[in-house]
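Shift notes (night). Ran Peptidase M12A domain-containing protein while the centrifuge was going.
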Amino acid sequence: MRFKFTFLFLLLSSQINANNNEYIIEGVDELGQEVNQKIKVENKNGKILYQGDILVSGVNIRDVFDISPMAIVKPSNYRWRNGDDSIAYFRFNGLDFRQRQAVYHAMSVIERSSGVRFKESQSEKDIIEIVKSGDSECYSQVGKVGGIQELGLGNGCFTGSIIIHELLHALGFWHEQSRSDRDNHILIHWDNIREEKKHNFNKQVGGNLGNYDYKSIMHYSNNSWAIDKTKPTITAISDPNLILGSNSLSSTDISTLQNMYGVTPKLRASSGQCGGNYDLYWSMPKQGGYHEYYAEIYLDNEFYRDSDFRFGETSIKIYSNSSVKVRLCESVQGYCGTFSNTVYLPRDTSDDCDRGPRD
Ligand SMILES: [Zn+2]
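Came back to this:
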């Protein structure tokens, strides 16, 4: 799906003032019909934000909207893909130790659910710069824009769900309630939204990926931007009491991530440890392209050995009379980049070795 946009205002720049924060996109959709979309933005301390937390300052607005506006960015060059790899590079600017830990944790949640890998780098061409913003704003650009792109976290943004939400923007997610088909699923209560905040409920034009997901971490909550916080600004048509949005990745968020960036392998123990034999197996990612990986094995929680595998192998046998902990690692400059879940098997104290394998 392709849109040709002609911009009446081509560039967003830092000179934009509060009275001039409206952009009109004129274009023709793939059916030849005219598409006119008003893009309203807000200037928050010099940051130009669309729909509350989507950063559009510092870049040509075309870079933001020339990607078919959808629930996720469609063209793969706006994704963090390099061949088969899905690596999003990042660096910190101004975050303290605890704040960085919160970001690492949010990244690990995304990594556990998908083939995305976050890697810290100062030298890559395309980098998400995670900055401590001076106010309470939380924001990100959408998709891989190219060059240094900013993801801002102010005081109050350091909760897991907010960081994951902003990271998903950077990975290419738009807001769920801005999907072009949202009016089939939700009601917007315009009378409870201040005039200057109504643009936060803009709809995108274009197609959507997957079914509408009320529980997406990218969905506004029922009273987002409400004048009267006791009343909703959004309700589901099918069930006005349905709680919208989530503090964690929904199953649809995960499948969308996996659709965009591949899946993470799941490590399982397939047989018991009677006699000290363990069979472990895993599924390989459909996409991912990890060429160097190994198993890290702990016996009685002491690091014991790691094993080299060739890409494509999917099982390992371990002999041990003690407890065993295993995880698969992607080799990152000699360190373990998390590649799978960790399987823990307690020490088997049973003398009975005739019961056969167990799960
Ligand atoms: Zn957002």
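The longest strand covers residues 34-44. The radius of gyration is 23 Å.
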